[in-house]
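Consider the tokenized backbone below.
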């Protein structure tokens, strides 16, 4: 069997390291072609020692210079690519088959588009890229002939629960139901959310993830981004996308059919499962995850968003449907505002409950517009970030 050559964008992060863990279990099926990171030189060097990729890219220029020097000192074959378009060139490289998109935030959009245009098998963890890119992203996938496979646990579950025949989705499916854990503050009094610290917000009850997505889970903005992601991935209108709180994160999401049957995907909360599925689809390979043990599974519970004060506790979730129904480009504005607000919260410049206030005020101030290309999208993203920054400064 010809080995699949895989490029991992964001290899030093939570998804990146889990991806390399799965790849490392199947040396007969996969080889690492290229790796990219932001600034963690030691970890990227270690990964280069183990997987011996042809190429590496680091976003931070000092980190890239350090990595190049240390690779050379150790006599390793990896070449460090540099420059503003290095990530895009790497993502589109003709010798790679598969690109795992695991950079956090809109910084991952340009390489995702490059991989899509180059017709790669594109494993999408980087939900922000699709939330920002929207129809433009999908059009790059179509024209490039790429295969877009979801990695986000909910979207992988939905993909696994849908019929293979894509053309039948609209007719057969009633609605998609995304499950949400409710994060660390599911039972907190809404008034207490002003006291939340970054440490508390990053302590997700079920998943170990990067800091940005952990905060998003705590505000449920993660679910808002995922509703938007589902709208683009599966093509159903916003009124056919639903969310239910399921604190145990065992059911990863569900599809309800016209006859009321519900098909779901279950498993222990371990991202190596959707990663292994994306890497091996349509086959299945060992992922390294623990299997579910139904004899010890104590509880599977569900909560409606309309009870227990959840709408008040998680006001950001409704912005998913509002921004999907607004002019195109609004989801990009929402994403930019949220990235700025979460960074400001992690930097202790604003309170946890002010994240939503920044998002709302930015949406009020910046009108969406239908971007024609990547430059247009980045312009809108930049405009929203500058506005969100001003709002953060007014709060802090
Ligand atoms: N973690 C999870 O379980 C899940 C994550 N996702 C999504 O996957 C994506 C990655 O999440 P996660 O792995 O948790 O995030 P992490 O913060 O753990 O990792 C992010 C990765 O991106 C790199 N990076 C950060 N900023 C830049 C930049 N400006 N340019 C280039 N590279 C950059 C980091 O490099 P470095 O650290 O070296 O600076 C790191 O390799 C997110 O979009 C998230 O929403 C989706 C579902 C589950
Ligand atoms: C693992 C994963 O896919 C995360 O997006 C996870 O779903 C976060 O959980 P909640 O956002 O439901 O808390
Ligand atoms: Mn998810």
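A designed sequence for it:
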């Amino acid at each position: 069997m010809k080995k699949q050559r895989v490029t991992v964008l964001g290899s030093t992060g939570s998804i990146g390291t889990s991806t390399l863990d799965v790849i490392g279990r199947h040396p007969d099926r996969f080889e690492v072609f290229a790796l990219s990171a932001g600034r963690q030189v030691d970890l990227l060097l270690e990964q280069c020692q183990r997987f011996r990729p042809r190429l590496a890219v680091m976003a931070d220029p000092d980190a890239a210079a350090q990595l190049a020097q240390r690779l050379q000192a150790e006599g390793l074959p990896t070449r460090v690519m540099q420059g503003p378009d290095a990530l895009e060139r790497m993502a589109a490289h003709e010798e790679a088959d598969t690109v795992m998109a695991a950079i956090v935030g809109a910084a991952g959009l340009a390489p995702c588009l490059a991989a899509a245009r180059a017709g790669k098998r594109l494993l999408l963890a980087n939900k922000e890229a699709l939330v920002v890119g929207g129809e433009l992203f999908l059009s790059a996938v179509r024209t490039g002939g790429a295969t877009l496979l979801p990695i986000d646990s909910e979207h992988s579950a939905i993909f696994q629960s849908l019929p293979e025949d894509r053309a039948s989705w609209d007719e057969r499916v009633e609605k998609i139901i995304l499950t949400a854990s409710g994060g660390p503050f599911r039972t907190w009094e809404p008034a207490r959310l002003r006291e939340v610290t970054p440490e508390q917000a990053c302590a997700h009850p079920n998943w170990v993830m990067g800091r940005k997505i952990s905060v998003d889970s705590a505000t449920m903005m993660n679910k808002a981004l995922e509703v938007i992601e589902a709208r683009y991935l599966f093509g159903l209108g916003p009124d056919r996308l639903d969310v239910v709180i399921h604190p145990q994160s065992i059911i990863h999401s569900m599809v309800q059919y016209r006859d009321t049957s519900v098909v779901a995907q279950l498993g222990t909360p371990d991202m190596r499962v959707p990663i292994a599925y994306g890497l091996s689809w349509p086959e299945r390979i060992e992922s390294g995850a623990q299997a579910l043990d139904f004899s010890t599974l104590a509880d599977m519970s569900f909560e409606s968003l309309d009870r227990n004060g959840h709408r008040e506790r998680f006001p950001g979730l409704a912005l998913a449907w509002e921004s999907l129904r607004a002019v195109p480009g609004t989801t990009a504005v929402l994403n930019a505002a949220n990235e700025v607000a979460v960074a400001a919260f992690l930097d202790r410049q604003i309170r946890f409950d002010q994240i939503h206030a920044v998002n709302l005020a930015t949406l009020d101030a910046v009108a969406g517009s239908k971007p024609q290309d990547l430059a247009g999208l980045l312009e809108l993203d930049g405009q929203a970030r500058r506005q969100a920054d001003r709002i953060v400064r007014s709060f802090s």
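The mean pLDDT is 97.
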